[in-house]
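Predicting holo structure, beta-D-fucopyranose bound.
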Amino acid sequence: MIAKSFPSDFLWGAATASYQLEGAATLDGRGETIWDRFSHTPGTIRDRNTADVACDHYRRFADDVAMMKEIGLRAYRFSIAWSRVFPEGTGKVNARGLDFYKALVDALLQKGIIPMVTLYHWDLPQSLQDRGGWGNRQTADHFADYAATLFGALGDRVSHWITLNEPWCVAFLGHADGIHAPGYRDFPLAVNVSHHLLLAHAKAVIRFREMNKGNGRIGIALNLVPMYPNSPSAEDERASRIDDGFMNRWFLDPVFEGRYPDDILRLYQERYHRPEIEPHDLELFSRSPVDFLGVNYYMRHLVAKSDQGRLGFEARKPPNATFTEMGWEIFPEGLSVLLRRLDSDYRHPEIFITENGIALEDDLRKDGRVQDDARVSYLRDHFAEAHRAMQSGVKVRGYFIWTLMDCFEWHDGFTKHFGLASVDRGSLERRWKASAYWYRDVIASNGF
Ligand code: FCB
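Done. Tokens:
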């Protein structure tokens, strides 16, 4: 194995999300979210669990931060639960909710760990859903007000901000496939939702520029998928271009170019008369440049033309491949391919890998240790691909592993384990897996 070394200021981190980790669902005035409502609805979550308790991180955060220090994390990406700060989504601030995040940020800074804050990782206040949720364009304005409240409260201490996590998932898993909250199966609605999310992002970035006079930086985290046509046929090439538009360009182009990709916009408008774009919407996109792009990388798509698919394509399972417990193909090369493409198509943005990681069954030894060698190889191979892209000039500034500890994996409940640490579901005791010690050495030596 050739030694790979990373820049001395590279941000090695781990990522989490409020609903998946915090628990304390009704403590200190937290309002109900769409994920509370969804997970309490029978038939939605594989193991019939909810995240009412999750990892109880809300109460154990000080110990968790101390743990992060043990492996030398340089940065920690977490999300803020909107409904802790505004239990009804708008209106009066709930000071106790805000205090929690102030305390978390202070604990991190005190240990020299850089906080990266995501403002929206899927837990919309239920009161806003009752008024149409992301299907209502006013939600974008409420989001900008909520974001501005956080910029005001934490802007002196937080240097890295992310508006939204994976708007594609919010729109399409939540409103077209119905497998995520709020559980709708309405494709045209999902297209509108994607537009409102992008508006929310733009409005928050504009507020950030107005308020942040320091050295704070803001971006968005997108789940991006490199596309591989299933065959060299013109039909599969075209199918793969559409999938690329659906998953990637629909979000990248507004953020970086201030407009929607023509091919997909035409497709949506011809078939669904969506999204509903108002006169000044696109102008907001061009007025909200980001400082960096967050890339969440988990998979590629092997794309074939299909008349079954809503947009004329389907993603196929690659033959002879290795898959994770999620059923996702392990495909490290896709990461460097994706990074180089982003660099050349979007004028060399600064990039953080804001999520990458693997769900495994995990080999639990008799002494309670988890020997997750497959996670070590997965991470090593993906780090190597990021390094390769960096060698060719792509500006990757940091890498956040999904995730710090095993937690509530959305509709899979607690059945999928992505963590660097395991969590005993009875005692909630955390314990580092072998991969965490390997990661500690990577961080300490800035390479492997
Ligand atoms: C991403 C989500 C994250 C986690 C990982 C496995 O899509 O952002 O919360 O569920 O997948």
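The first strand starts at residue 11 and ends at 15.
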